[in-house]
Write a structure and sequence with these properties.
Family: Belongs to the 3-hydroxybenzoate 6-hydroxylase family.
Mean pLDDT: 86
Helix content: 25-40%
InterPro entries: FAD-bd, FAD/NAD-bd_sf, MOase
Largest sheet: 8 strands, mixed
Number of helices: 13
Keywords: Monooxygenase, Oxidoreductase, Signal
Shape: globular
CATH architecture: 3-Layer(bba) Sandwich
Number of domains: 1
Strand content: 15-25%
CATH class: Alpha Beta
Radius of gyration: 22 Å
Number of strands: 17
Order of helices and strands: HHEHEEHHEEHEHEEEEHEEEEHHEEEHHH
GO molecular function: FAD binding; monooxygenase activity
Distance between the termini: 63 Å
Organism: Miscanthus lutarioriparius
CATH topology: FAD/NAD(P)-binding domain
Amino acid sequence: MALRVPRPHLLFVIAAVAMALATAMISSPQLRYCPSPRGRHRRRGRHSPAAATVAASATPRSEENIVIVGAGVAGLATAVALRRLGVGAAVLEQGDALRAGGTSLTLFNNGWRVLDAIGVADELRSKYLRIQGMRMRSPAAGGRDLREFSFEEEAPGQEVRAVERRVLLEMLASKLPPSAISFSSKLKSISEQGRAGTLLELEDGRQILSKIVIGCDGVNSPIARWMGFSEPRYVGHMAFRGLAEYADGQPFEPKVNYIYGRGVRAGFVPVSPTKVYWFICFNRPDPGPKITNPAALKSEALELVRGWPSDLLAVMRSTPEGAVVRTPLVDRWLWPGLAPAASRGGRVVLAGDAWHPMTPNLGQGACCALEDAVVLARRLADAGGAGADGAQAQAAMRAYEAERWARVFPLTARAGLVGALVQWENAAVCAARDGVVIPRLVRLGPFLEHTNFECDLLEPAPQST
């Protein structure tokens, strides 16, 4: 049902949509990271055994200094950042291998600065195209042009690339010892053991007593639930995502292509010389039943944009059926005084989607997870790593939370509001968007300041053998 907009509020809506469009196309607020002085980490960091691993053995109970739960972007980036600072960590992953599914992640300046800091950016840059600009269209008349932008003109120095999730995870994992990740290690329960640490019980019966636990176990985090966080909130729209393959080379310029309809928006962006990422975001009152049939998923996605520009449809048809996913969009707003703390007792702390799931409307979920990783690693290393006493570890975790909350709360809220605005179905608002807001009012530069996150390189500490 279309949303009615009273006439007195139409100008306000138009202004709001202008801001929403600018941020939805690129990103969102806010702060910069002030790095610690170089060199402190080597002096104060404390090495864990190089073969920090959680392996199934004859003894069902083992002890670890630091355990990271979850081998996603946040978990692996945190493990890599800690290792570069001389602090070992064991990583638990419930799957039997790194996540091979998913499509791609769009990374902006802030994400690339973190990848530079932990030493993996250049290897990824060599694989993926740098996006040069953006084209915005309406689905009317086969794709009427509304506006075209150049990043160099609108936001000089901005670095935007879409990266395959699978390749990013593999790259991060390659920087860890082969035994650092324990697969098929699904968490069953977690309990406090006083000064001894935190006890993790796995589904296969193993028990791990860890001095520090870092929860990077994703949107539906059991650790966040144990710490008292609410379930993520469904925001009223869903997304199809896919990764098209062109064995002989994809034909598109390195630009983001956006198409705005009424209650439905879509886009595609070249990822590499042979792959193109695409998405559709559409309104739905509830997520509905899960669809597991790949052919049905692809068919439903194509039906949503039937009659839209032919290049979008061609990209979608060039996508293997197994490379299409449909997910509900969710978030969790960390209201001050209402949300639980991100850490508990100086023993357990959250990072990434486990703490602050956000909608992808600003393209900042993965970037924020990477930021969390480098900030948390530095705080823990400065406190002495796993050798920190309870008070030191607690202070480090609280400092991490204070620094990150000031960034992720407004960012999560803004992403949610942007999504609500650009998904409106009201005909008058959409006409104003296409006729006035996009052609005349949208400016990208001011809305990209949040990507100016800075951090020094994490200079590798000597590793034990």
